[in-house]
Each structure stands twice: as structure tokens, then as C-alpha cells.
Write a structure and sequence with these properties.
By secondary structure, the protein is an alpha/beta fold. It folds into two domains: about 400 residues, Rossmann fold (3-Layer(aba) Sandwich), CATH 3.40.50; about 100 residues, 2-Layer Sandwich (GMP Synthetase, Chain A, domain 3), CATH 3.30.300. Helix content is about 30%, strand content about 25%. The protein is built from 16 helices and 27 strands. It is globular. The two termini are about 35 Å apart.
């Protein structure tokens, strides 16, 4: 059985670059604030955003950057992020967005895999950028804020601007390579075209409906597909003023809501938890908030209802994956159901499938498969992983267990895939297991996600020590912490005699969860 969207199809904007699509309302909006830096109040109008993009595109093109080139962008949420993202895209190139909290080793892996030749960062992350770039194809590092002895954004602004998009095949040319662990395994480059990105924003038109005076808070990182597409690109394309925060701080977020009259508050479940329960919330005027939209991890119906009752607003959620640009399901404001991720967006088909590949019907749990114009081109340099995720008929196998109810609302109920979601960030168990096995005292290791009220899930390691070896849990956790980003760190650790495995050697994670 194929489940289709209850919403009408939309006309897909094929043949237009993501930058031209994102800037489609600039002539109309002109001097209205487009992006405001929350901490400082520094503001770019819609016209200034376009000018900055064209200047940076011109500066990049003058240095030989263009079709076939990749730029690494490692920065927090600041107004200039959009300028570099779209400057590279406008010049015909590709952007790979990098988590700035990564270690040098993690950044180096992404730079090598993506083939980036330029790396853009801020001074705070310069040491990591320099170390990570060693031995890669990166030829030049730019900082957004000036650093003595290094080229900065301002050096790119001296070249003539590009006033038109460098021609590219919008249906196939990668415009962005965010990295995702997919349903399992190590992080992989997700190849998304211009058409993937523009289609997904347009597909959400009937659900994410904004008013001319809406203001949205952009806490969620632009390097993550949710922040990149739903916030940065989707909001600009719809004429919404964005207020950025380089990192989440509840008190600062509440102050920004009060000062800028934020109406759309985009969040992940741990932030919704804070809005529902933290006493600080009562000290600020949050009456401007109309909608809290949660994504990146499941939000319980109880928590959503509690936040909605406290703030007097709608609390809704959506579902998606990096591999889907990212949205496939979302809730219409005022029509949500507790615990539901909403309805299927326009131009999207779904199937619910059992373990044998048989289609299931309404109110039956099975793996969710999705097909639509937002589905990725594939994984970069990884045909095997692509084939394991997208079948020959174009269905993307999500690895999530779900069901549709009688009203076409979807409920995500379990996860087949091994991926751990810590505060909305992906933590691939295989990466941590490989790292643990390099510890001299560790004979075998397995990592699972353990439910946690604040984080959603936290990584827990099960360790078997080598005969005669000694190590404490704290020693092993510190060993891992020194080599991975904060969100990937082992939060719990248990020593066991043997890691349970199948006859083929696959870790039986279900048995570990049942412990």
C-alpha cells in the first residue's frame, strides 16, 4: 500500500539554483531585516544579503573556485554563514558543512572525503582548522573575522561581484555535502542537488505557512540539514526575519524572544523540555511565540502538551533525514496530534513495510520507506551504502519503524537503525566502537543509545577487557573524549564478560538494550 500526501501537489521549481530560489523575495523586501545576529543586534537586510553573496561569489570565482570545487564551511550561526554558503553555490561550486565542535581528526576525515580545497571558519576554530587541513587538499583557509596573516572574508569582497548564477545542472550537481551516518555506520557525504533543496522547501509550502511579520529564532546549527534548510534557506525564501544564535543558551534565547518578538521558535526536544519546565521562562515575555516547531528527534506528546500549555502556543513537530533534504512529514499548525510527526508533505509517497518487504496498512507498525523529489542523489564515493539505502525503485529505506493512523498522521515508534540521537545530533555506534577497540585494554566493545529525558538518548558503551588488562570506566571515557566531539562522548559505561553477537558476528544490540 502506498500512502500519499493528503495535501495537493506543488509545482517543483526545477532549473533554478538554491541561491536564486532563496533570494526570490529580495526585490520585494529590500531593506527589511533578513538576518539579525542575536547577541550583538548586527543586522543584514535582504538586499545586503544578496549583495554579500554576490561579492563573495565573485571573490571565490576570481580565485578559481567554481563547478567541481568544494568549500568547507565550519562556523557557528552568524549572518555571514548564509553569505558563504550561497556565495559558493552561486559560483557553481559545492559546500560541505562542518560541525565546528568536531575534533581536528573528525574535520580532516570530512575534508579528505569531500575533497574541499578551501576552508572557511572563524578565529575561534582556527587552530582546529589548521591542524585538520594538514595533509588534505585544502589550499587556503579563510576566516570570517579578520586574523593577522590570513586571508579573511574582506579579501574576497575586493573582486567584482557575480551578478548571475554560474550555470550548473540543478538536477544532478551537488550543491551541498552535509555528512550523515544514514541508518548505520560511519559518517558519509550526502549528495544533495539544487533541485533537492528547492523542491523540499516548496513541498513544505502548505504546512510551514509564514506571515509577513514573522520572526524566527535560529538556534539550530546551519551546518545541520534542519538548520540549513528549514531555517536558513526556507525562512529567507519565505521572507521571514531570522535571528541567529551561535550557541544555545536558554537565558539569552529568552531575552532574544522578548526583544525581537520571535513568533516561530525552532527547537529540538531538549530545548522544548527547557521551555516546558525551566523556571527562567517565567521571567521573560514569551507571548510573541505562536509556534514551537520541534525536529531532529522524536518529541513525546506529553512534553509537547506541557510546553504548549505553559507558553500558550502551538507545539508541533516534523520528521525527516539529511538524506531527504530533510523534510518528509510535518504538522500543520492547529491540526497536530500528541506524539505525531504530522502528515506527509506534498509530492511525497510512503510505504510501511514488514521485515520481509511486504506492504502493511493503516495502524500497522513497519519500516518507513519514502520516495519523492527531496531524496538525495546518493552517498559520496559510497555506492554500496547508497544501494543499501535507496532501492532500484527509488524508495529510501529510513530505518525507522512507524505507522499511519486513520487520519493520515504518522507516528515514529521505534528505530531499526543503530544510530543514536543525542540532543538531535547523530552519534554512529560503529564510529565509537572502532575508537574503543584502539584502547590497549579493550578486547571488544558495543555502543547503544539509552533513553534520557534531557538528551533524548545518550551513548552507553559495553566493554570486554583483554585478559589480565585493567582499566576504569573513567579512563576509557576520557580516552574517547579526547578524540571526538562533545556530543559523541560515552556517557555511561558497563563492563561485561562478552558482547552478544549473532552467528554472522553482528552485535545483538537488542539484547544489550534489554539489560
Amino acid at each position: 500500500m502506498v500512502f500519499t500526501s493528503p495535501l495537493p501537489d506543488v509545482e517543483l521549481p526545477t532549473g533554478i539554483s538554491i541561491t536564486d530560489y532563496t533570494l526570490r523575495m529580495v526585490d520585494e523586501l529590500g531593506d527589511r531585516p533578513a538576518i539579525i545576529d542575536g547577541p550583538s543586534g548586527r543586522t543584514q537586510t535582504f538586499s545586503e544579503v544578496r549583495s554579500g553573496i554576490q561579492l563573495i561569489a565573485g571573490g571565490l570565482a576570481a580565485r578559481g573556485f567554481g563547478p567541481g570545487s568544494t568549500l568547507g564551511l565550519m562556523a557557528p550561526n552568524i549572518p555571514e554563514y548564509a553569505s558563504f554558503f550561497h556565495g559558493a553555490a552561486y559560483a557553481g561550486g559545492t559546500v560541505t558543512t562542518i560541525n565546528p565542535t568536531y575534533t581536528a581528526g573528525e574535520v580532516r576525515n570530512q575534508l579528505n572525503d569531500s575533497g574541499a580545497t578551501i576552508l572557511v571558519t572563524i578565529s575561534m576554530f582556527l587552530d582546529v582548522a589548521r591542524e585538520a587541513s594538514e595533509g588534505t587538499s585544502v589550499e587556503e583557509i579563510f576566516t570570517i573575522d579578520p586574523v593577522e596573516g590570513l586571508p579573511s572574508m574582506f579579501d574576497l569582497l575586493t573582486s567584482p561581484p557575480l551578478t548571475e548564477q554560474v550555470p550548473v545542472d540543478t538536477s544532478s550537481v551537488p550543491v551541498v555535502l552535509p555528512y550523515s551516518s544514514g541508518t548505520t555506520g560511519r559518517s558519509k557525504g550526502v549528495v544533495l542537488s539544487h533541485d533537492n533543496l528547492t523542491a523540499n522547501i516548496e513541498q513544505c509550502r502548505h504546512i510551514l505557512s509564514y506571515g509577513v511579520d514573522d520572526v524566527a529564532l535560529a538556534i539550530l546549527p546551519f551546518f545541520h540539514i534542519y538548520g540549513m534548510q528549514v531555517l536558513m534557506n526556507g525562512l529567507l525564501a519565505n521572507g521571514v526575519t531570522i535571528v541567529t544564535m551561535p550557541r544555545f543558551d536558554l537565558e539569552e534565547a529568552l531575552s532574544i524572544v522578548q526583544e525581537h518578538k520571535v513568533s516561530w521558535f525552532f527547537a529540538v526536544p531538549p530545548i522544548v523540555l527547557a521551555m516546558a519546565k525551566h523556571p527562567l521562562v517565567d521571567q521573560y515575555d514569551t507571548s510573541s511565540i505562536k509556534v514551537i516547531f520541534s525536529g531532529a528527534a522524536p518529541l513525546s506528546g506529553e512534553l509537547g502538551d506541557e510546553a504548549a500549555a505553559r507558553l500558550g502556543c502551538d507545539v508541533i513537530q516534523g520528521y525527516g533525514m539529511t538524506e531527504m533534504s530533510p523534510v518528509s512529514h510535518a504538522t500543520i499548525v492547529g491540526e497536530g496530534k500528541p506524539g505525531s510527526s504530522g502528515i506527509t508533505i506534498s509530492n511525497t509517497e510512503c510505504r510501511i513495510v514488514d521485515l520481509e518487504g511486504n506492504d502493511l496498512g493503516v495502524n500497522e507498525d513497519g519500516e518507513l520507506w519514502i520516495r519523492g523529489p527531496q531524496v538525495m542523489q546518493g552517498y559520496l564515493n559510497n555506492a554500496e551504502a547508497t544501494a543499501a539505502t535507496i532501492d532500484p525503485d527509488g524508495w529510501l529505506h529510513t530505518g525507522d519503524v512507524a505507522h499511519f493512523d486513520d487520519d493520515s498522521h504518522i507516528f515514529i515508534v521505534d528505530r531499526i537503525k543503530e544510530l543514536i540521537k543525542y540532543k538531535g545530533f547523530q552519534v554512529p555506534p560503529a564510529e565509537l566502537e572502532g575508537l574503543l577497540l584502539t584502547h590497549p585494554a579493550v578486547a571488544d566493545a558495543a555502543v547503544i543509545g539509552v533513553p534520557d529525558d534531557e538528551a533524548g538518548e545518550i551513548p552507553k558503551a559495553f566493554i570486554t577487557l583483554k585478559p589480565g588488562a585493567e582499566a576504569t570506566a573513567e579512563e576509557i571515557q576520557e580516552f574517547v573524549a579526547g578524540q571526538v566531539a562533545t556530543f559523541k562522548q560515552i556517557r555511561l559505561l558497563e563492563f561485561i564478560d562478552q558482547i552478544p553477537k549473532s552467528a554472522s558476528g553482528k552485535i545483538l544490540r537488542r539484547e544489550l538494550r534489554d539489560r
